[in-house]
Design brief:
The chain is mainly β and 603 residues long. It has a domain of 188 residues. 4% of the residues lie in helices and 54% in strands. The protein has a 24-stranded antiparallel barrel. A hairpin with a 2-residue loop joins strand 18 and strand 19. It is globular. The N terminus is likely disordered.
Length: 603
Amino acid sequence: MSATLASEAKAVDLPQVGGAPVRLEVTETSIAAQRFNARDGENERDQGSFSWLNRLNVVLSWKQFTFGARLDSSLYALRPEDRNYADPSIKDGAIADGASRYRDSLYPAKLYLTYKNGIVEATAGDSYVQFGRGLVLSMRKVDELGIDTTLFGGKLTLQKDPFSFTVTAGLANPARVDEPTGRALFLPKPIPGREPQPLFGSDRIIAAQIQAGRGLPVVASTQAAMLDRCAPYRYNRDGSVQTGLFDAPFGTCDEGATDKWSESWSKTNPVSEAKRTINASQSIEVPNLWGHGNFYVEAAVQKRELADGRDNNTQGNAVYASLTNTGGPITNTLEVKSYRNFLPLAGSINISQASAFSNIAYSAPPTAEVVTQDSMFGFFNACVTGGRDRLDYRVNNNALFWGALGYFVTRSEVGAPPSCDKTGKSTATNPSEATNSVIDVSAGTQLQWDDDKSIAFLTATYRNDTKDNGDLYYREYAFQYSITKYISGPYALEIAGRHRRRQEEGQNARGANSLEGQPWSEGDNQVALKVAPKWIFSQGFEYTTFIGLPTYYFNGGIVYRFTSQSNIRLFGGQNRGGLRCVSGICRFFPAFSGARVELTLRF
């Protein structure tokens, strides 16, 4: 259960400098959590620890200049490696796991200086950047998933309608500490019998975009990005890393060091195997179709240079388009995509040691599905053709009904990619087992009453994913709701939840030969009492019938707002683990049992 309140950001006015005001904005976010002991079916190493994470963000503005910095810190106690075990092998495993987990740290996460006037915007340091719809480059922040990836280097934008030009270059800079798991991307601690090896490389990106037609009926954009994978450190003759001042954190592109680092790459897809990947695209946008919608289309190509010099199926391409039409009470939105051997720019991560960071990527091809879709398995989007159409009908100011239909054929959901070439032809040994057809149907309504103080969102979904040989791969029935009922004065009651009936090949299997997997149910329901504008009291209930996991989870929470910008959140109880997705970016969250306090102060 969450709530947001939008308002103008506050700042502290400092003494004037050079006749111009100086403004300081400070945001302090502090999160303390105590995890209880693991329940049956939960990983012991994910539970039982204490953590304190702090993020101090400072923004200083003067005239056209803005300076920003963020200092991140983490402190842990009661770690698995600190405990005593009857079995020495368990202790050894906890120590090995703790080499890159539950690390006490203090480091500058973000640092930038920006100059901006009506034509020029120049940034030195960290910056977010996305071109088009993300096919070529997308480095951004996704709060729901704890992802924060910037480009540390330089960014220059020149804008004078109808033209705009942007160029950026630097090192990929993702957040180094993962709050849910305690995993960190720092060089692991040395442990007996094992020389520490880096978990994250030195990913170097150069990108540019030129736009023509800004402010005109048609806008054309050309964009390109090049990702080079270099070593985060130089290496000694014995294979150990050199942690000298001139290597960390910038790394080196020395061929010998890069070859050594490449041995640790988790080569889970063709981009992960490549030392260099180039994306380029051309897009055309019509922002206003005679007052009745908009149109966007983008075509992209990808070229990968493998580390060993091979030229084996290293080219891909993608086309994405969206069309929105409005007329009277009806709005129709159509999205289509055709991706052939086209993958996101994956970060250089040793996933075998840092799987929590496996979702770090510097591009995000649109999914043409709902932003929270978590049923695109494997590399669903790498070799896929299909689309989704949504029709909205507004009956009046208080009622809207909608329906959507999606159909996709993917050749990369099952098995390891690439499973198609640049023409879309399957490269799998048995194409009928590696090609899936997916139908996704959904419908819903939005209702408002009590002078718009009460609102309800209701959604029902059916998804069927079948292999070409007729075998069922995945099926789901789901119902989701969010209802806020105004009571009186400052009081309102909110009920939200999602309930699913799922079945997936090889999952929840009973018996040694049960490849098909058995259906299971899972869901959650949360109730909150809101006392505007200060308080939110919530109670949650989650469940799953998946074999081997706890069946029930209970939790409760309190939110108190000191001001519109500062608040404290208290949470106690249990959360079910699982996959969460936002806009095609997914990550797995471990189950949580314990208490959590989050304090946010802004001034």
